[in-house]
Specification:
mainly alpha; two-stranded antiparallel sheet
């Protein structure tokens, strides 16, 4: 029975705190659309991070003309290049 009282008290305390707390909505907070320049900058950062993660995993880059393929070894790079039509 004593467990029930403590749970009820805890629930009442959480309800009281929730009613006093902020709702999380503020009239001052608003979202704006990103400009094309900002979008391009974010994409460049994401691509750079992706390449860093790949290189950390041991993936190498292989060049087929002007195209770049990221693969673990030459055999996989050749297969990916054939699938993309670079070879």
């Amino acid at each position: 029975m004593s467990g029930m009282k403590s749970k009820l008290g805890m629930l009442a305390m959480m309800a009281a705190m929730a009613s006093m707390g902020e709702t999380g909505y503020s009239e001052r907070s608003e979202y704006r659309q990103l400009t094309d320049e900002e979008k391009a900058e974010l994409k460049a950062i994401a691509e750079k991070k992706r390449l860093e993660r790949l290189k950390h995993k041991g993936v190498n880059e292989y060049f087929y003309g002007q195209n770049v393929i990221y693969a673990r070894n030459q055999k996989n790079a050749d297969r990916k290049a054939r699938n993309k039509g670079y070879l």
